[in-house]
Recover the amino acids of this structure.
């Protein structure tokens, strides 16, 4: 019971963080048809910007300024980089973001150093929210859940209930038609890219002090975000949401299970001594998302909620 | 009627042209490799040359799927690594000398690597080659992560973190090469580099190689004329995996050790950068890329610790401004010289070169100053006796002035080209 409750709580908060990251990516993906390899780098930038701003002012100011800064960086990248590469096709765009990820990591290493920075949870939220089964659950995680849900609702409202959202949605699927109607499609693309990056920055701001803020955080998070987007289905925010929660729960539950393959498949004669038998479920946790990704692409290429195939 | 047939016959290259375009470059390549030991190179040179040979084969094999097949893979090092691991095990079997392995020369281990890579390609390629594009790219990423994770679980094959090591001086000695001293290993590397290059060049001339290019350009039409694009991709993928395994086998003999890092995402990314920077639309492109990047990797990292930053800048610059890579720049230069107005072309070209060099100067000064500032040891960048401190005006002048001038020059050159 204890494992289940904690797996659930941690899984949901981690899943919501993943969703914050992947919602921007899935918007960008459906817009340009290209997976932004540097998306996790913007997540990292968010954490580092928040660290700098928190250092000179406070966490609460960083909460508003850092995502905006990351969004501006993203908009500049789209305007002066991606837009130029767009003419050379999807592979060139993907490779551009791939190179950008390298570049951002190296620049961050120069500015902030190669080791982790001391980016902490604000004092105001640094207490235990409640205690169950003798273990505490930090209030900051509740705050993360709260912010993520607020963002989810805000994003949903923006996309589905406002005129701007309507135009964005139309521009994602029929850019030429929207252009003919007199809207500035490149500007819409730039805005969406900026917003997507800002959301990633927000996720970095929230996650940087739960995990570690170091130059490797982009590389650690990057591939998992792709998994979320692909498993959820292209351009489907609902799918990305489901996939985020699914992967969050999957990973957190797997970590909590101590059983090995020998325990699970002992009935077919697998023993603890053999190499396969000694693998534990918890050691599989980091690779489960990738297993899910490969299986999904093979058996259901359109993802959980996607309409078109990848 | 006879006229049409006549034209067709004239379109075919003459025997002389065939020799010049197809056989001669390979002969020159082999001759260069043959001539290198006569200059009495140093040990460092040999080490880098071996690395280059391995990377040439690896990058070319990657280009079989990216450039010729249109499949972007983020996990090509998996086949390099699995082939290399199999070769490594075979080396240990040779040392044990049991069964037929006692009669197998270490010299032919790259063939074992080829088999290993091709086998891995045949197994992994089956589910992943059904689609091209982003699906393929994502599956390759997922598979790479899975295999890398598996490498730490199955110690008997991958040897855990310390990997597997062996001794190449065992078994039957081929061509009187004990493979002990580094200049004997050179012949081994040179031989297999040439074999790999010829093999992959020959592959582009086969019907399958041609079909692979057709599938890249238009899979639907390929289907229309009666071929199955999935099968074409799958077969090409197996061969690409095989040649990557060949490179892995070369690496196994050269380094005598293989660790799970060899099949992680890092070398997969590096081979992608090598092939793309070299130029994926040309067969020789990845060779240029492999030589340049291996050189950068081993030499530049001695001069500056920010070499990865320069690599990133180079890669982005190539993606943005020269999508045909270094090979595209080189061949474009010679084409331009043979064009209508070589003088004018050369002038613009030199102007651009000057602009790029100026921008590079600004970038280097900026990066080097920043790196030293970031380390915080109080070290100062002192090129040509200058004292460039982060607070001195001169350093910032040297950053901004060349950068602005360089941007202006290259823009001016492009504008003049457009105005033509």
């Amino acid at each position: 019971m204890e494992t289940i409750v904690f797996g659930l709580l941690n899984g949901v908060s981690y899943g919501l963080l993943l969703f914050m990251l992947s919602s921007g990516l899935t918007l960008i993906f459906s817009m340009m048809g290209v997976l932004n390899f540097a998306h996790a780098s913007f997540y990292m930038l968010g954490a580092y910007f928040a660290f700098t701003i928190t250092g000179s002012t406070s966490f609460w100011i960083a909460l508003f300024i850092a995502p905006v800064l990351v969004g501006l960086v993203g908009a500049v990248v789209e305007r002066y980089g991606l837009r130029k590469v767009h003419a050379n096709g999807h592979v060139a765009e993907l490779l551009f973001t791939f190179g950008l990820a390298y570049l951002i990591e190296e620049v961050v290493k120069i500015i902030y150093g190669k080791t982790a920075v001391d980016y902490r949870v604000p004092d105001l939220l640094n207490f235990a929210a409640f205690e169950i089964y003798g273990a505490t659950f930090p209030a900051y995680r509740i705050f993360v859940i709260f912010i993520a849900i607020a963002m989810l609702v805000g994003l949903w409202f923006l996309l589905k209930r406002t005129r701007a959202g309507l135009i964005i949605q139309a521009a994602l699927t029929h850019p030429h038609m929207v252009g003919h109607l007199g809207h500035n499609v490149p500007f819409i693309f730039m805005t969406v890219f900026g917003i997507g990056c800002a959301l990633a920055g927000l996720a970095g701001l929230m996650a940087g002090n739960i995990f570690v803020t170091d130059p490797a955080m982009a590389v650690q998070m990057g591939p998992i975000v792709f998994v979320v987007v692909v498993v959820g289905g292209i351009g489907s925010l609902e799918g990305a949401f489901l996939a985020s929660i699914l992967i969050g729960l999957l990973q957190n539950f797997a970590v909590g299970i101590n059983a090995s393959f020998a325990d699970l498949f002992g009935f077919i004669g697998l023993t603890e001594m053999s190499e396969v038998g000694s693998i534990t479920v918890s050691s599989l946790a980091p690779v489960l998302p990738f297993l899910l990704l490969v299986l999904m692409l093979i058996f259901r290429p359109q993802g959980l909620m996607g309409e078109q195939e990848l | 009627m006879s006229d049409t047939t006549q034209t067709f016959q004239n379109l075919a290259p003459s025997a002389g042209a065939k020799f010049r375009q197809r056989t001669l470059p390979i002969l020159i390549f082999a001759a260069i490799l043959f001539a290198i030991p006569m200059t009495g190179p140093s040990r460092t040179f040999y080490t880098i040359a071996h690395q280059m040979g391995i990377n040439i084969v690896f990058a070319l094999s990657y280009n079989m799927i990216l450039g010729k097949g249109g499949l972007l893979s983020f996990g090509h090092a998996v086949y390099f690594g699995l082939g290399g691991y199999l070769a490594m095990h075979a080396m240990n079997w040779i040392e044990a000398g049991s069964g037929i392995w006692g009669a197998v020369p270490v010299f032919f281990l790259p063939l074992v690597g080829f088999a290993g890579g091709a086998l891995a390609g045949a197994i992994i390629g089956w589910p992943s080659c059904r689609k091209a594009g982003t699906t393929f790219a994502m599956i390759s990423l997922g598979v790479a992560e899975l295999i890398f994770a598996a490498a730490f679980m199955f110690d008997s094959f991958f040897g855990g973190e310390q990997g597997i090591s062996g001794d190449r001086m065992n078994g039957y000695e081929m061509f009187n090469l004990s493979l002990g001293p580094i200049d004997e290993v050179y012949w081994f590397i040179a031989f297999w580099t040439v074999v790999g290059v010829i093999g992959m060049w020959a592959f582009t001339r086969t019907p399958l190689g041609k079909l692979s290019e057709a599938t890249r350009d238009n899979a639907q039409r390929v289907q229309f004329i009666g071929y199955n694009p999935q099968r074409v991709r799958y077969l090409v993928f197996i061969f690409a995996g095989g040649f990557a395994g060949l490179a892995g086998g070369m690496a196994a003999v050269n380094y005598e050790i293989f660790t799970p890092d060899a099949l992680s995402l890092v070398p997969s990314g590096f081979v992608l950068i090598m092939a793309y920077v070299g130029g994926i639309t040309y067969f020789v492109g990845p060779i240029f890329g492999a030589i340049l990047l291996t050189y950068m990797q081993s030499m530049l990292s001695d001069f500056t610790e920010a070499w990865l930053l320069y690599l990133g800048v180079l890669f982005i610059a190539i993606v943005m401004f020269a999508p045909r890579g270094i090979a595209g720049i080189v061949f474009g230069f010679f084409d331009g010289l043979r064009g209508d107005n070589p003088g004018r072309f050369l002038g613009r070209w030199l102007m651009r070169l000057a602009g790029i060099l100026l921008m590079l100067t600004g970038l280097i000064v900026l990066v080097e100053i920043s790196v030293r500032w970031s380390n915080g040891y109080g070290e100062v960048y002192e090129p040509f006796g200058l004292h460039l401190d982060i607070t001195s005006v001169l350093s910032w002048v040297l950053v901004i002035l060349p950068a602005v001038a360089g941007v202006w020059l290259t823009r001016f050159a492009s504008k003049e080209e457009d105005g033509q």
Notes: The radius of gyration of chain B is 24 Å. Chain B is about 75% helix and 0% strand. Chain B has a mean pLDDT of 83.
